[in-house]
Protein backbone atom coordinates (compact mmCIF):
# COMPACT_ATOMS: atom_id res chain seq x y z
CA UNK A 1 0.00 0.00 0.00
CA UNK A 2 2.81 2.42 0.82
CA UNK A 3 4.60 1.57 -2.42
CA UNK A 4 1.43 2.40 -4.34
CA UNK A 5 0.94 5.62 -2.36
CA UNK A 6 4.52 6.69 -3.09
CA UNK A 7 4.04 6.09 -6.79
CA UNK A 8 0.73 7.95 -6.86
CA UNK A 9 2.04 10.98 -4.95
CA UNK A 10 5.43 11.29 -6.64
CA UNK A 11 4.29 13.59 -9.51
CA UNK A 12 2.68 16.03 -7.06
CA UNK A 13 5.36 16.02 -4.35
CA UNK A 14 8.67 15.00 -5.98
CA UNK A 15 9.63 13.70 -2.54
CA UNK A 16 11.78 10.83 -3.83
CA UNK A 17 14.87 10.83 -6.06
CA UNK A 18 14.58 7.07 -6.62
CA UNK A 19 12.00 4.62 -5.37
CA UNK A 20 12.87 1.08 -4.29
CA UNK A 21 9.54 -0.76 -3.89
CA UNK A 22 11.30 -4.12 -3.99
CA UNK A 23 13.24 -3.24 -0.82
CA UNK A 24 10.04 -2.40 1.07
CA UNK A 25 8.50 -5.69 -0.06
CA UNK A 26 11.63 -7.61 0.95
CA UNK A 27 11.28 -6.29 4.51
CA UNK A 28 7.63 -7.34 4.58
CA UNK A 29 8.56 -10.81 3.34
CA UNK A 30 11.24 -11.04 6.00
CA UNK A 31 8.58 -10.50 8.69
CA UNK A 32 6.59 -13.46 7.37
CA UNK A 33 9.69 -15.65 7.14
CA UNK A 34 10.90 -14.73 10.62
CA UNK A 35 7.45 -15.32 12.08
CA UNK A 36 7.20 -18.72 10.42
CA UNK A 37 10.65 -19.59 11.75
CA UNK A 38 9.66 -18.45 15.24
CA UNK A 39 12.40 -15.78 15.25
CA UNK A 40 11.89 -12.61 17.30
CA UNK A 41 10.90 -9.56 15.25
CA UNK A 42 12.87 -6.31 15.30
CA UNK A 43 11.39 -3.08 16.62
CA UNK A 44 10.88 -1.80 13.06
CA UNK A 45 9.85 -5.15 11.55
CA UNK A 46 8.24 -4.62 8.17
CA UNK A 47 8.00 -0.82 8.54
CA UNK A 48 8.58 0.83 5.16
CA UNK A 49 10.58 4.02 5.58
CA UNK A 50 12.01 6.76 3.38
CA UNK A 51 15.78 7.19 3.45
CA UNK A 52 17.16 10.71 2.99
CA UNK A 53 19.46 10.55 -0.03
CA UNK A 54 22.41 11.64 2.08
CA UNK A 55 22.85 8.12 3.53
CA UNK A 56 24.98 5.73 1.50
CA UNK A 57 22.90 2.71 0.53
CA UNK A 58 24.70 -0.27 -0.93
CA UNK A 59 23.63 -0.87 -4.51
CA UNK A 60 21.20 2.08 -4.59
CA UNK A 61 22.22 5.43 -6.09
CA UNK A 62 23.21 8.03 -3.48
CA UNK A 63 23.32 11.62 -4.76
CA UNK A 64 23.03 14.13 -1.89
CA UNK A 65 20.68 15.77 -4.46
CA UNK A 66 23.73 16.97 -6.39
CA UNK A 67 24.64 16.42 -10.00
CA UNK A 68 28.21 15.80 -8.90
CA UNK A 69 27.11 12.47 -7.39
CA UNK A 70 24.62 11.52 -10.09
CA UNK A 71 25.03 7.83 -10.88
CA UNK A 72 27.15 7.17 -7.78
CA UNK A 73 26.23 3.77 -6.37
CA UNK A 74 27.95 3.05 -3.05
CA UNK A 75 29.61 -0.28 -2.38
CA UNK A 76 28.74 0.05 1.30
CA UNK A 77 25.84 0.84 3.61
CA UNK A 78 25.83 3.69 6.15
CA UNK A 79 25.83 2.58 9.77
CA UNK A 80 22.48 4.25 10.49
CA UNK A 81 20.68 2.70 7.52
CA UNK A 82 22.13 -0.74 8.21
CA UNK A 83 20.92 -0.50 11.82
CA UNK A 84 17.43 0.29 10.55
CA UNK A 85 17.47 -2.70 8.19
CA UNK A 86 18.72 -4.86 11.09
CA UNK A 87 15.70 -3.69 13.11
CA UNK A 88 13.48 -4.94 10.27
CA UNK A 89 12.69 -1.72 8.38
CA UNK A 90 12.44 -1.66 4.58
CA UNK A 91 13.26 1.12 2.14
CA UNK A 92 10.59 2.84 0.05
CA UNK A 93 13.23 4.90 -1.72
CA UNK A 94 15.79 7.67 -1.44
CA UNK A 95 14.31 11.00 -0.43
CA UNK A 96 14.96 14.32 -2.08
CA UNK A 97 16.76 17.06 -0.09
CA UNK A 98 18.55 20.34 -0.46
CA UNK A 99 21.79 19.77 -2.33
CA UNK A 100 24.40 18.47 0.16
CA UNK A 101 21.80 19.35 2.85
CA UNK A 102 22.45 23.07 2.31
CA UNK A 103 19.16 24.90 2.48
CA UNK A 104 15.90 25.43 4.33
CA UNK A 105 13.34 24.92 1.56
CA UNK A 106 14.49 22.03 -0.64
CA UNK A 107 14.91 24.41 -3.54
CA UNK A 108 18.65 23.75 -3.91
CA UNK A 109 18.14 20.13 -5.02
CA UNK A 110 19.47 19.28 -8.49
CA UNK A 111 16.45 16.98 -8.84
CA UNK A 112 13.76 19.65 -8.56
CA UNK A 113 11.91 21.15 -5.59
CA UNK A 114 10.00 19.00 -3.19
CA UNK A 115 6.46 20.33 -2.90
CA UNK A 116 4.72 20.33 0.47
CA UNK A 117 1.38 18.49 0.63
CA UNK A 118 0.02 21.60 2.46
CA UNK A 119 -1.66 24.60 0.79
CA UNK A 120 -2.96 27.92 2.08
CA UNK A 121 -6.76 28.08 1.88
CA UNK A 122 -8.05 29.26 -1.50
CA UNK A 123 -4.52 29.42 -2.80
CA UNK A 124 -2.86 26.92 -5.10
CA UNK A 125 0.68 28.35 -4.67
CA UNK A 126 2.99 25.41 -3.92
CA UNK A 127 4.63 25.67 -0.49
CA UNK A 128 8.11 24.66 0.64
CA UNK A 129 8.30 21.53 2.81
CA UNK A 130 11.25 23.05 4.67
CA UNK A 131 14.76 21.78 4.35
CA UNK A 132 17.07 20.24 4.00
CA UNK A 133 15.10 17.09 4.90
CA UNK A 134 12.15 18.25 2.78
CA UNK A 135 11.59 14.96 0.96
CA UNK A 136 11.41 13.32 4.39
CA UNK A 137 8.95 15.87 5.80
CA UNK A 138 6.73 15.91 2.70
CA UNK A 139 6.56 12.11 2.48
CA UNK A 140 5.66 11.67 6.15
CA UNK A 141 3.19 14.59 6.14
CA UNK A 142 1.50 13.21 3.01
CA UNK A 143 1.14 9.83 4.76
CA UNK A 144 3.05 8.02 1.98
CA UNK A 145 5.76 6.96 4.44
CA UNK A 146 5.13 6.25 8.13
CA UNK A 147 8.61 7.51 8.99
CA UNK A 148 11.79 8.79 7.39
CA UNK A 149 15.39 9.47 8.26
CA UNK A 150 16.64 13.02 8.36
CA UNK A 151 19.92 14.75 9.06
CA UNK A 152 20.30 17.98 10.96
CA UNK A 153 23.31 20.28 10.74
CA UNK A 154 21.59 23.54 11.67
CA UNK A 155 17.92 22.55 11.79
CA UNK A 156 17.29 20.29 8.83
CA UNK A 157 15.18 17.79 10.79
CA UNK A 158 13.38 20.24 13.07
CA UNK A 159 12.48 23.02 10.62
CA UNK A 160 10.97 20.76 7.90
CA UNK A 161 9.09 18.83 10.61
CA UNK A 162 7.63 22.12 11.88
CA UNK A 163 6.65 23.36 8.43
CA UNK A 164 4.78 20.14 7.59
CA UNK A 165 3.13 19.34 10.94
CA UNK A 166 5.14 16.25 11.84
CA UNK A 167 7.63 15.35 14.61
CA UNK A 168 11.39 15.14 14.28
CA UNK A 169 14.28 14.63 16.69
CA UNK A 170 17.95 15.46 16.36
CA UNK A 171 19.82 13.57 19.09
CA UNK A 172 22.94 14.66 20.96
CA UNK A 173 25.90 15.08 18.61
CA UNK A 174 27.59 11.68 18.38
CA UNK A 175 24.53 9.51 19.18
CA UNK A 176 24.09 8.40 15.56
CA UNK A 177 27.10 7.39 13.53
CA UNK A 178 28.07 9.72 10.69
CA UNK A 179 29.77 6.83 8.88
CA UNK A 180 28.33 6.61 5.40
CA UNK A 181 26.46 9.91 5.68
CA UNK A 182 27.60 12.37 3.01
CA UNK A 183 29.47 15.01 5.04
CA UNK A 184 28.33 18.65 5.12
CA UNK A 185 29.75 20.16 8.35
CA UNK A 186 31.24 17.31 10.35
CA UNK A 187 31.20 18.96 13.78
CA UNK A 188 27.45 19.62 13.44
CA UNK A 189 25.97 16.83 11.28
CA UNK A 190 23.63 14.43 13.12
CA UNK A 191 21.12 11.89 11.84
CA UNK A 192 17.70 11.62 13.41
CA UNK A 193 14.13 10.40 13.06
CA UNK A 194 11.07 12.03 11.46
CA UNK A 195 7.61 10.53 11.99
CA UNK A 196 4.02 11.28 12.94
CA UNK A 197 4.45 11.31 16.67
CA UNK A 198 6.90 11.25 19.52
CA UNK A 199 6.54 7.51 20.15
CA UNK A 200 7.37 6.61 16.55
CA UNK A 201 10.38 8.93 16.65
CA UNK A 202 11.57 7.27 19.88
CA UNK A 203 11.26 3.76 18.40
CA UNK A 204 13.09 4.78 15.26
CA UNK A 205 15.87 6.74 16.98
CA UNK A 206 16.51 3.81 19.30
CA UNK A 207 17.12 1.66 16.22
CA UNK A 208 19.41 4.26 14.60
CA UNK A 209 21.62 5.26 17.54
CA UNK A 210 24.66 3.56 19.04
CA UNK A 211 28.45 3.60 19.24
CA UNK A 212 30.33 3.07 16.01
CA UNK A 213 34.11 2.69 16.01
CA UNK A 214 34.11 3.84 12.38
CA UNK A 215 33.06 7.39 13.41
CA UNK A 216 35.71 9.06 15.58
CA UNK A 217 33.09 11.40 17.12
CA UNK A 218 30.63 8.61 17.92
CA UNK A 219 29.53 8.52 21.57
CA UNK A 220 30.66 5.39 23.32
CA UNK A 221 27.55 5.11 25.48
CA UNK A 222 24.76 2.52 25.60
CA UNK A 223 21.51 3.54 23.88
CA UNK A 224 18.88 4.08 26.59
CA UNK A 225 15.46 2.47 26.26
CA UNK A 226 13.78 5.73 25.30
CA UNK A 227 10.53 4.14 24.17
CA UNK A 228 10.09 2.28 27.45
CA UNK A 229 10.91 5.48 29.36
CA UNK A 230 8.30 7.68 27.65
CA UNK A 231 6.16 9.69 30.07
CA UNK A 232 4.20 12.90 29.61
CA UNK A 233 4.19 13.62 33.34
CA UNK A 234 6.12 16.86 33.84
CA UNK A 235 5.64 17.11 37.61
CA UNK A 236 8.90 18.11 39.26
CA UNK A 237 10.40 19.27 35.93
CA UNK A 238 11.52 22.80 35.18
CA UNK A 239 11.09 24.24 31.70
CA UNK A 240 13.26 27.20 30.68
CA UNK A 241 11.90 29.98 28.46
CA UNK A 242 14.85 31.98 27.10
CA UNK A 243 14.02 35.67 26.80
CA UNK A 244 16.43 36.19 23.88
CA UNK A 245 14.23 34.06 21.63
CA UNK A 246 11.38 36.60 21.91
CA UNK A 247 12.47 38.52 18.86
CA UNK A 248 11.20 41.99 18.03
CA UNK A 249 8.55 41.72 15.34
CA UNK A 250 8.04 38.03 16.00
CA UNK A 251 5.19 36.50 13.99
CA UNK A 252 2.15 36.80 16.34
CA UNK A 253 1.02 33.25 15.52
CA UNK A 254 4.43 31.88 16.42
CA UNK A 255 4.36 33.86 19.69
CA UNK A 256 0.86 32.57 20.47
CA UNK A 257 1.81 28.96 19.79
CA UNK A 258 4.82 29.36 22.10
CA UNK A 259 2.49 30.63 24.84
CA UNK A 260 0.17 27.68 24.18
CA UNK A 261 3.12 25.32 24.60
CA UNK A 262 4.04 26.95 27.90
CA UNK A 263 0.46 26.46 29.11
CA UNK A 264 0.39 22.81 27.97
CA UNK A 265 3.61 22.02 29.86
CA UNK A 266 2.25 23.81 32.96
CA UNK A 267 -0.88 21.64 32.71
CA UNK A 268 1.38 18.58 32.58
CA UNK A 269 2.84 19.68 35.93
CA UNK A 270 5.99 21.55 34.86
CA UNK A 271 7.34 24.65 36.53
CA UNK A 272 8.07 27.42 34.01
CA UNK A 273 11.26 29.46 34.55
CA UNK A 274 12.44 32.46 32.56
CA UNK A 275 16.08 32.03 31.59
CA UNK A 276 18.72 33.91 29.62
CA UNK A 277 20.93 32.61 26.81
CA UNK A 278 22.85 35.85 26.28
CA UNK A 279 24.86 34.88 23.18
CA UNK A 280 21.84 33.74 21.15
CA UNK A 281 22.09 36.66 18.74
CA UNK A 282 25.52 35.49 17.58
CA UNK A 283 24.39 31.94 16.77
CA UNK A 284 23.31 32.54 13.18
CA UNK A 285 26.48 34.38 12.04
CA UNK A 286 28.61 31.84 13.92
CA UNK A 287 26.85 28.95 12.20
CA UNK A 288 27.19 30.56 8.78
CA UNK A 289 30.96 30.76 9.28
CA UNK A 290 31.59 27.32 10.78
CA UNK A 291 29.23 25.30 8.56
CA UNK A 292 30.58 26.69 5.23
CA UNK A 293 34.18 26.40 6.50
CA UNK A 294 33.72 22.69 7.21
CA UNK A 295 31.74 22.22 4.00
CA UNK A 296 34.45 23.77 1.85
CA UNK A 297 36.92 21.30 3.30
CA UNK A 298 34.59 18.27 3.09
CA UNK A 299 33.57 19.00 -0.49
CA UNK A 300 37.18 19.12 -1.71
CA UNK A 301 36.87 15.38 -2.31
CA UNK A 302 34.53 15.87 -5.30
CA UNK A 303 37.15 16.27 -7.96
CA UNK A 304 35.98 14.08 -10.82
CA UNK A 305 38.45 11.36 -9.87
CA UNK A 306 36.69 9.36 -7.18
CA UNK A 307 32.92 9.77 -7.44
CA UNK A 308 30.07 10.38 -9.83
CA UNK A 309 30.44 13.13 -12.40
CA UNK A 310 33.64 13.70 -14.39
CA UNK A 311 33.90 16.57 -16.84
CA UNK A 312 37.08 16.09 -18.86
CA UNK A 313 37.19 18.62 -21.69
CA UNK A 314 39.23 17.60 -24.76
CA UNK A 315 42.92 17.94 -24.17
CA UNK A 316 42.34 19.07 -20.58
CA UNK A 317 44.82 18.54 -17.76
CA UNK A 318 44.10 17.48 -14.20
CA UNK A 319 43.42 21.00 -12.86
CA UNK A 320 41.06 21.68 -15.77
CA UNK A 321 39.18 18.49 -15.01
CA UNK A 322 38.77 19.46 -11.35
CA UNK A 323 37.50 22.89 -12.33
CA UNK A 324 35.16 21.69 -15.08
CA UNK A 325 33.74 18.89 -12.92
CA UNK A 326 33.09 21.16 -9.95
CA UNK A 327 31.67 23.93 -12.11
CA UNK A 328 29.23 21.53 -13.75
CA UNK A 329 28.47 19.37 -10.71
CA UNK A 330 27.81 21.77 -7.82
CA UNK A 331 24.70 23.96 -7.65
CA UNK A 332 24.83 27.70 -6.88
CA UNK A 333 24.17 27.41 -3.12
CA UNK A 334 26.91 24.79 -2.75
CA UNK A 335 29.34 27.02 -4.65
CA UNK A 336 28.37 29.97 -2.43
CA UNK A 337 29.14 27.93 0.69
CA UNK A 338 32.47 26.73 -0.72
CA UNK A 339 33.44 30.34 -1.47
CA UNK A 340 32.41 31.60 1.98
CA UNK A 341 34.14 28.66 3.64
CA UNK A 342 37.34 29.04 1.68
CA UNK A 343 37.37 32.77 2.43
CA UNK A 344 36.94 32.40 6.20
CA UNK A 345 39.64 29.72 6.30
CA UNK A 346 42.13 31.65 4.17
CA UNK A 347 45.39 32.75 5.78
CA UNK A 348 44.49 36.45 6.04
CA UNK A 349 41.01 35.98 7.47
CA UNK A 350 41.22 32.78 9.52
CA UNK A 351 41.65 34.49 12.88
CA UNK A 352 39.13 37.24 12.20
CA UNK A 353 36.37 34.83 11.17
CA UNK A 354 36.97 31.15 11.84
CA UNK A 355 38.85 31.36 15.15
CA UNK A 356 36.47 34.04 16.35
CA UNK A 357 33.46 31.91 15.41
CA UNK A 358 34.88 28.93 17.29
CA UNK A 359 35.25 31.09 20.41
CA UNK A 360 31.69 32.35 20.11
CA UNK A 361 30.51 28.77 19.62
CA UNK A 362 32.02 27.96 23.01
CA UNK A 363 30.17 30.90 24.58
CA UNK A 364 26.89 29.71 23.07
CA UNK A 365 27.46 26.19 24.42
CA UNK A 366 28.33 27.66 27.83
CA UNK A 367 25.05 29.62 27.88
CA UNK A 368 23.20 26.30 27.64
CA UNK A 369 25.39 24.63 30.28
CA UNK A 370 24.60 27.49 32.67
CA UNK A 371 20.88 27.41 31.88
CA UNK A 372 20.68 23.66 32.42
CA UNK A 373 21.92 24.11 35.98
CA UNK A 374 18.45 25.54 36.67
CA UNK A 375 16.11 23.84 34.21
CA UNK A 376 15.55 20.35 32.75
CA UNK A 377 14.55 21.35 29.21
CA UNK A 378 14.11 24.54 27.19
CA UNK A 379 11.02 25.36 25.12
CA UNK A 380 11.24 27.65 22.06
CA UNK A 381 9.64 27.91 18.63
CA UNK A 382 11.20 25.77 15.90
CA UNK A 383 11.03 28.26 13.03
CA UNK A 384 10.16 31.96 12.71
CA UNK A 385 7.16 31.34 10.43
CA UNK A 386 4.96 28.66 8.93
CA UNK A 387 5.66 27.29 5.43
CA UNK A 388 6.49 29.90 2.77
CA UNK A 389 5.79 29.63 -0.93
CA UNK A 390 8.34 28.11 -3.26
CA UNK A 391 10.35 30.96 -4.75
CA UNK A 392 9.40 33.37 -1.96
CA UNK A 393 12.83 33.38 -0.29
CA UNK A 394 15.09 31.62 -2.77
CA UNK A 395 16.33 34.80 -4.45
CA UNK A 396 17.84 36.12 -1.23
CA UNK A 397 20.24 33.76 0.56
CA UNK A 398 20.28 35.86 3.74
CA UNK A 399 16.49 35.78 3.96
CA UNK A 400 16.71 31.98 3.67
CA UNK A 401 19.44 31.76 6.34
CA UNK A 402 17.20 33.67 8.79
CA UNK A 403 14.91 30.65 8.85
CA UNK A 404 17.47 28.89 10.99
CA UNK A 405 17.53 31.48 13.77
CA UNK A 406 15.86 29.22 16.37
CA UNK A 407 17.47 25.94 15.33
CA UNK A 408 21.21 26.67 15.04
CA UNK A 409 22.00 27.40 18.72
CA UNK A 410 21.26 23.78 19.79
CA UNK A 411 23.27 22.55 16.80
CA UNK A 412 26.32 24.62 17.72
CA UNK A 413 26.07 23.27 21.28
CA UNK A 414 25.58 19.66 20.09
CA UNK A 415 22.38 19.28 22.14
CA UNK A 416 19.39 17.02 21.53
CA UNK A 417 16.36 18.92 20.22
CA UNK A 418 12.96 17.92 18.93
CA UNK A 419 10.19 19.66 17.01
CA UNK A 420 6.56 18.70 17.53
CA UNK A 421 3.42 20.09 15.91
CA UNK A 422 1.86 22.96 17.89
CA UNK A 423 -1.29 24.07 16.19
CA UNK A 424 -1.98 26.06 13.04
CA UNK A 425 -1.41 29.68 12.09
CA UNK A 426 -3.95 32.16 10.65
CA UNK A 427 -3.58 30.49 7.23
CA UNK A 428 -4.27 27.04 8.59
CA UNK A 429 -0.62 26.01 8.22
CA UNK A 430 1.23 23.98 10.85
CA UNK A 431 3.58 25.51 13.42
CA UNK A 432 6.17 23.63 15.45
CA UNK A 433 7.58 23.95 18.94
CA UNK A 434 11.08 22.89 19.85
CA UNK A 435 12.27 21.21 23.03
CA UNK A 436 16.02 21.47 23.65
CA UNK A 437 17.61 19.19 26.24
CA UNK A 438 20.84 18.58 28.09
CA UNK A 439 23.54 16.60 26.30
CA UNK A 440 22.63 12.87 26.38
CA UNK A 441 19.13 13.60 27.72
CA UNK A 442 17.05 12.57 24.71
CA UNK A 443 14.63 11.06 27.25
CA UNK A 444 13.90 14.46 28.76
CA UNK A 445 13.41 15.93 25.28
CA UNK A 446 11.09 13.11 24.18
CA UNK A 447 9.06 13.29 27.39
CA UNK A 448 8.50 17.06 27.26
CA UNK A 449 7.63 16.66 23.57
CA UNK A 450 5.12 13.97 24.48
CA UNK A 451 3.55 16.35 27.00
CA UNK A 452 3.10 18.88 24.15
CA UNK A 453 1.52 16.31 21.83
N1 LIG B 1 19.32 25.46 6.72
C1 LIG B 1 20.60 25.23 7.28
C2 LIG B 1 21.67 25.36 6.22
O1 LIG B 1 21.33 25.65 5.13
C3 LIG B 1 20.65 23.88 7.94
C4 LIG B 1 20.86 22.77 7.01
C5 LIG B 1 20.98 21.45 7.71
O2 LIG B 1 20.68 21.34 8.89
N2 LIG B 1 21.45 20.47 6.96
O3 LIG B 1 22.83 25.19 6.45
TrEMBL record:
EC number: 6.3.5.7
Enzyme class, UniProt record, top EC level: ligase
InterPro entries: Amidase (IPR000120), Amidase_CS (IPR020556), Amidase_dom (IPR023631), AS_sf (IPR036928), GatA (IPR004412)
Biased composition (Low complexity): 125-134
One Pfam family linked to the record: Amidase
Residues of the active site: 52, 132, 156
Spans annotated as Disordered: 112-134
A GO CC annotation given for this chain: glutamyl-tRNA(Gln) amidotransferase complex
MF annotations from Gene Ontology: ATP binding; glutaminyl-tRNA synthase (glutamine-hydrolyzing) activity; transferase activity
Catalytic reaction annotation: L-glutamyl-tRNA(Gln) + L-glutamine + ATP + H2O = L-glutaminyl-tRNA(Gln) + L-glutamate + ADP + phosphate + H(+)
Keywords: ATP-binding, Ligase, Nucleotide-binding, Protein biosynthesis, Transferase
Domain Amidase: 1-446
One GO-annotated biological process of the protein: translation
Similarity remark: Belongs to the amidase family. GatA subfamily.
Quaternary structure, from the entry: Heterotrimer of A, B and C subunits.
Record function comment: Allows the formation of correctly charged Gln-tRNA(Gln) through the transamidation of misacylated Glu-tRNA(Gln) in organisms which lack glutaminyl-tRNA synthetase. The reaction takes place in the presence of glutamine and ATP through an activated gamma-phospho-Glu-tRNA(Gln).
NCBIfam families cross-referenced by the UniProt entry: gatA
Name by which UniProt lists this protein: Glutamyl-tRNA(Gln) amidotransferase subunit A
Amino acid sequence: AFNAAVEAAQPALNAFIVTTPEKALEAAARVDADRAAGKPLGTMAGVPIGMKDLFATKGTQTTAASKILEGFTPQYESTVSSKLWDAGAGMLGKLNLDQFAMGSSNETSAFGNVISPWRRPNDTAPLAPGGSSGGSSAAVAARIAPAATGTDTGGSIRQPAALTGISGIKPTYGRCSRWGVVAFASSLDQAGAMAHDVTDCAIMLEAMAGFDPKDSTSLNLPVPEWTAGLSADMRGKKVGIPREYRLDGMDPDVARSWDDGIAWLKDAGAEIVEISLPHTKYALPTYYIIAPAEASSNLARYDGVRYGLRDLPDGAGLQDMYAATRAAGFGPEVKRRIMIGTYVLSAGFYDAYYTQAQKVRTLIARDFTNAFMDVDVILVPTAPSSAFALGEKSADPLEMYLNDVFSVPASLAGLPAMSVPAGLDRNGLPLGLQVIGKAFDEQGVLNASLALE
